[in-house]
Every structure is written in C-alpha cells, then in structure tokens.
Write a structure and sequence with these properties.
Helix content is about 40%, strand content about 15%. It is built from 11 helices and 9 strands.
Length: about 300
C-alpha cells in the first residue's frame, strides 16, 4: 500500500488541495478498489484510529459510504446525527465536537448546513477534519469520486469536456467538481436555467450554456444534478414539469447525438425530472460505478490523512 500523506492535514475543499494530492488519492483508491473486491474486504490500516461522523444534515449515501470506508479500514467509528438539531452557530458546534473529542477521537467527518463549518472546526480542534458537505459551498469527496469514475472510463482527463447540468446555484457538488476537474486539466461547462446558474460563475473559468441539447453535443461526460428544492427559499423555475421539458436529459436527446457520452449523477435522482429512467438505467450511465468508487475514494482520503497522525 502507498505510504504517503496529503499536503494538508484536512480535506476541507478541493480548492485547498493540489493536483498532486488528487493524483495521490486516485492512486491510493486504485489499491483500495482491489481490496473491496476481494473476498475479505477489510484491512487493518486504521486500526487504533477513532473516526467520528458528525452529520448535522440528513444524508444517506454519503454517510453510509464513509461509515463503510471506515469499517473496511478497521477504524473505530462513532456516529452522531443531528438532522433536525438547532445546532447552527459556531460556538455550539465547537462545544459538541469538543465533547466528542474528549473521548479521544482522531478524525472528524462533518456535514453541516452552514458554509465554512468544517473550516471553523479545523482552526479550533486538533483532529483531522473531512468535509462531507457544507451548505452550498463544497463536497470534496463527491468531486473526487466523480473524477475518479471519469478517469476509470476515459483515462487522463486533460482536455476532456465535462458538462455539469442542473441546479448549479444550490449545488456544493458543482463547485467541488469545477475545482477538481480544472486541476486535472479538463474543460468544464455548466448548463441549466439562467435562474439556477450563479451570475459570476464564468469568473471561475467555466463555459456557461442554457441549451441542454447543444451541451450534450459538446461534452464527453454529462454530470447531471437534481433540483435542490430544500435549499430554495423562492421559486427559481415555474414547475418541475417545465424543467423536465426544457432541461431534463432523456433518451431521444442521446439518440440524436453522433457519439456516445458518459452519464453521471451524484444522487439522489429525481427520475423524470432532471433525468429519465431510460437514461439513468442505460449502458451510458455509470451512476452505480460512482457509488462503488465512493467507498474506495473515501478509504483513500481517510488512509492518507491518518498517515499523518503521530504514531501511525
């Protein structure tokens, strides 16, 4: 197994790590993907390391994926869920985490509705922090598993054309994907209704389009995002039916292309809205590959950060 560490003590966002860090994570994840496909899927890499999963927002896929990754690495796992908690302010969050750290926790995986919560923690506590999603800011491990899944199918991503289609405005996945793909040399385009694309996103060096069919013709990969109604305080689209009509990706669209493209979705999917069932279940889709790769990538991140813990 690769014995190396990342340039940072934490994984707070893709913006904060280097292209070399990303490549190291991918190389390590390659090894762990072999491990999780063996009859015995467990390795003792994080034995004697305690990881606390702090989820202040509801999550199914990410939380399960992290927990499975931790257990595959033989870590001791503490789960704390507070989806409906009033824990919003930094001081209360710090008190909560300090209580858990008093139990001698080495690493903290945190999802929080407030942007910057993982960064706040990293400045105040000693443990390694992994951001599992902070507000509409970043979701670094999702971007890493997305890029890892693309690399698995396409090889080097340098020069590849990646489209991110959907609710860009409220998506932490979109921002992390943009940072990650650009660091790997890919060309990125965002596409969706004008109301769901941030005004100044072009300043990040991405192309902007409001035409889904034209974007599908342009890209090698379409990463499709859902409409995040739970984060919208006002109506940004007339209706889901209207959205599906103008921005949903369906099979006739793919049939009209003169090439094959990869279809991705970070989940959860709203079938019949941003993506049709025919597309989601087609041979073009690598959505289930993303789920499998999520465990290997998160194992890699945990392992590499743990390598920097004294005594490991």
């Amino acid at each position: 197994m690769i014995n190396s560490t990342l340039s940072s003590k934490h994984l707070l966002g893709i913006k904060d790590i280097s292209a070399q860090d990303i490549k190291l994570i991918f190389e390590t994840a390659d090894n762990f993907k072999d491990v999780i496909n063996r009859p015995i899927k467990k390795v003792p890499s994080l034995r004697d390391i305690t990881v606390a999963n702090l989820f202040f927002e509801n999550s199914t896929r990410t939380k399960l994926s992290f927990e499975l990754a931790e257990k595959r690495l033989s870590a001791d796992v503490v789960n704390f869920s507070s989806g409906n908690s009033s824990v919003k302010k930094g001081e209360t969050l710090l008190d909560t985490v300090n209580n858990i750290l008093s139990m001698k926790v080495d690493m903290v995986v945190i999802r929080h509705p407030a942007q910057g919560a993982p960064h706040f923690l990293s400045q105040h506590i000693d443990a390694n922090i992994i951001n599992a999603g902070d507000g509409t800011h970043e979701h670094p491990t999702q971007a890493l598993l997305d890029a890892f899944s693309m690399r698995e199918k396409l090889g080097d991503l340098k020069g590849k054309k990646i489209a991110i289609i959907g609710d860009i405005k409220h998506s932490r996945v979109a921002l992390s994907n943009i940072f990650c793909l650009q660091k790997l040399g890919a060309k990125v385009r965002v596409c969706g209704p004008p109301t769901l694309i941030p005004k100044h996103i072009g300043s990040l060096g991405v192309e902007v389009s409001y035409n889904v069919e034209e974007t599908l013709k342009w890209c090698d990969v379409a990463n499709i995002l859902r409409i995040q109604l739970e984060r919208q305080d006002i109506k940004y689209i007339p209706s889901l039916r209207e959205y599906a009509l103008h921005f949903g990706v369906n099979k006739p669209m793919l049939d009209r292309l003169d090439k094959e493209i990869l279809i991705m979705h970070p989940g959860p999917m709203n079938r019949g809205v941003e993506i049709s069932s025919e597309v989601a279940d087609s041979e073009h889709a690598i959505i289930l590959d993303q789920v499998e790769n999520g465990v290997a990538v998160r194992m890699a991140v945990l392992f590499l950060l743990a390598s920097g813990i004294e005594g490991k």
